[in-house]
């Protein structure tokens, strides 16, 4: 499979845990999630850096509007870097430019050099953290292509502007920035009455991508099998 814009990549055949193999010409760069590199062929330099939304010094870090990112630069032609997310599931691409996207924590895998991003603070409308807390999501700018990872399978939900959709926050991967949304507690105190926690409620016209498995629930399930001292 080849990207529809300039990123040249293919996915391995595994439906459960694929890797993405990105071809790079000399001088070409991509940004990847730190720790995502599996192997590389040719001369490729990996450099880690912090994105601070244009804020110099440690101001961006202290505000929470920063994250580490790695840049892979090819120093030879026909170079290739193979990348994979931390959890098993699907890898898919999104086009950035005509449409911009917001990505939930852990969904970003890689992007072309001309795709930029910033961290946006999301205020909670419910009682979580006394109404003063927030979550951060990545918002794209620029143009190009991004690779996104999902835990489990992927489903796309299209909103027609008539009916809202409510999705558990742990299942949300990416959504078009044209959508209005709010984040709230599902019910009760931290969802204790129903077992649900924080949910996203989307309104308007646009698309939402969801992952079919909940990493937090999976981790809690595995934890019950770990012997405790």
Low-confidence stretches: 1-5, 53-66, 126-134, 189-195
Sequence of secondary-structure elements: EEEEEHEEEEEEEEEEEEEEH
Q: Based on CA inertia axes, which overall geometry fits? A: globular
| Radius of gyration computed on alpha carbons | 19 Å
Structural class computed from helices and strand pairing: mainly beta
Record field, number of beta strands: 19
Distance between the termini: 48 Å
Question: What's the mean pLDDT score?
Answer: 83
Q: Strand sequence of the main sheet, in spatial order?
A: 5-6-3-10-13-8
Total helical elements: 2
Q: Considering DSSP H and I runs of 4 or more, what fraction of the residues is helical?
A: under 10%
* Most strands sheet: 6 strands, antiparallel
Percent of residues in beta strands? over 45%
3D architecture notes:
The protein is mainly beta and 229 residues long. It has helices at residues 59-63, 215-223, and strands spanning 8-11, 20-24, 29-32, 37-41, 44-51, 67-74, 79-83, 89-96, 101-103, 108-112, 115-123, 134-142, 144-151, 154-160, 165-168, 172-176, 180-185, 198-203, 205-211. The protein is globular and about 55 Å long.
